[in-house]
Amino acid sequence: MNRISLSLSHKEFCHHFVVFQGNYMRLEQLLNSFNNRLQEANENGLVEILPSIYFKYDINVKKGPIKERIRDRFLKIFKIEPSNFEVLQRTTYHLEFDIRNIRDYFRIADELSEDKIIEKRNLGDETINDELRYVHSDELVYPNTLGSGSGNCGIWDVFSKNGLFTTFDRDYSLFNLSTLLEITSYRPEYIDTICFMGNTCSKIIPLMRKQEFLPGTISGTDDIETEFDGKKYITFEGKHRTCAAKKLKLESVPILAYVPTTISKSTSNTYYKGLEKNCNDILENCYYLFEQMGLRKEEAKYLNEHITNDIYIEYIEEKTGKRFEEIKIKNNLPYLF
Fold first, then answer.
1. Backbone dihedral region for residue 21 (phi beyond 0: left; psi -120 to 50: alpha; all else: beta)
2. Which residues pair with 127 in a beta bridge?
3. Given phi > 0 = left and psi -120 to 50 = alpha, else beta, which region is 59?
4. Comparing C-alpha atoms, which of 96, 94, 103, 92 is closest to residue 4?
5. Cα first-last separation, the chain
6. b or e along 146-165 (b: 16 or more beta carbons within 10 Å of the residue's beta carbon)?
7. pLDDT tens per residue, range 248-295
8. pTM score above 0.85
């Protein structure tokens, strides 16, 4: 459980937004949704504003200077309201987020601020010396994209056809590709069934099992090319091979690695106006999807707040009474483009 508390002036409040699963929402939009669902607040005054993200707020308006107050009283005699701008200048918003969601990406950003980031500088192949290393598969990261898309990945193909995974724009995604690849890795039988549906993995898996997988084995260019960030190896070429190695839990994987030159720079937080989402739509779509899977709202909340990826499939199968690969979501989903 993670709590974030903020106290913002009105000007600051207008320039803050939240990001959830890559969707952008202004804080004022959250407040509007909060007011519409006050009756759902729990004993702590918290309302679920996004899936397993709970929220409450308080607004404080300081009294104006004595001269301003005298003027306002005088104006009220003539039924003239004080300047709204002056009131807002004295307004402070106290916000609290209770983040119980253990799976979905969430952050709060200020579009007027700058984030310090580390950017990888592309030096070009001629100046990079790849180093052959043998690493444990746990040191590799599951990819979040795959070359040739669903057509050459059995996992992607099966679960996208079942409606559980999509790269299309839904208001809420059950999981991204790297999460799907990870949760299915805890079902070993998928390797010899679903994974073998992919042309690439049907060739790679037998070689890896016989410890005959070496750089360039299949076509002369089938290496696992990675960047090392100091902790993990991030694959930019050979994503299917990385996934196969991780699913087989190989203790020694041959990879080509380099530590890229990096530079520090500042980048502004950008609020993409064309990508705004309504938090109510996200919330409704989330529980609609889980309902289609066969999970009640309370069970879906428990999944998002407590169930780790290693027992994700086990939990769903226990609650639905169905095999995970047999669960299907109807195509007539709302908010699916």
1. left
2. none
3. beta
4. 96
5. 33
6. beeebebbbbbbbbbeebbb
7. 999 999 988 876 656 566 667 766 655 678 888 999 999 999 999 999
8. no
